[in-house]
TrEMBL record:
<dbReference type="GO" id="GO:0000139">
    <property type="term" value="C:Golgi membrane"/>
</dbReference>
<dbReference type="InterPro" id="IPR042336">
    <property type="entry name" value="GOLIM4"/>
</dbReference>
<feature type="coiled-coil region">
    <location>
        <begin position="5"/>
        <end position="60"/>
    </location>
</feature>
<keyword id="KW-0175">Coiled coil</keyword>
<feature type="coiled-coil region">
    <location>
        <begin position="90"/>
        <end position="142"/>
    </location>
</feature>
<protein>
    <submittedName>
        <fullName>GOLI4 protein</fullName>
    </submittedName>
</protein>
Length: 192
């Protein structure tokens, strides 16, 4: 009986040491989990900031596009007005001296130069719009990658938390079993 009691006492001590070890592991995992949660929180704040900046960039792009369109329309209207003025002047000066015809030719050349500048301006605006669209697409892709990584990290954290919780429940069940066994041994009159 004494040998059995000592053997059970040793098992109880071993179980308590094991429970203490599991408790320490749980505390360490809880600390790691807290660090991961804080890291995730920082990532979410960073993502929110990126979304705000993306929204502002998009709004700035829309404002720029509207202003560019208005400037383009104004320039086009100015060119049309200039063309009308040149045409009227051409009709008025049609029957005058050769020097006046030469002046009209110079004005037509000026008009062609303005049309060329207008075309170059249009091409430049188109290139800028395409570049902004490409940058926006790249930003959207980066944000999607960040969201995917955060979801994967969240899944891993949930799995680790469930494993720790399961180990803790198992250790508590063993502690309860050893406590009941200890109480039963203490009630036995032979061991007293």
């Amino acid at each position: 009986g004494l040998f059995l009691y000592q053997h059970l006492q040793q098992k109880v001590r071993n179980a308590e040491a094991l429970a203490q070890k599991y408790k320490q592991q749980q505390e360490a995992l809880s600390a790691q989990l807290q660090v991961v949660y804080e890291h995730r929180s920082r990532l979410e704040r960073s993502l929110q900031k990126e979304r705000g900046e993306h929204k502002k960039t998009k709004e700035d792009f829309l404002v720029y596009k509207l202003e560019a369109q208005e400037a383009l329309n104004k320039e086009k209207q100015d060119s049309m007005n200039r063309y009308g003025a040149l045409s009227s002047q051409h009709k008025i000066l049609k029957n005058q001296h050769d020097d006046v015809k030469k002046q009209l030719l110079d004005l037509q050349l000026q008009h062609n130069s303005l049309k060329l500048e207008h075309r170059k301006s249009l091409e430049s605006h188109s290139q800028k719009l395409a570049q902004l669209q490409q940058e926006k697409d790249s930003e959207v892709t980066n944000l999607q990658d960040t969201v995917f990584k955060l979801r994967e990290e969240s899944k891993l954290l949930r799995k680790a938390h469930q494993e720790v919780h399961s180990q803790l429940l198992s250790a508590q069940a063993q502690m309860e079993e050893f406590r009941q066994l200890k109480e039963a041994l203490q009630k036995m009159p032979g061991l007293r």
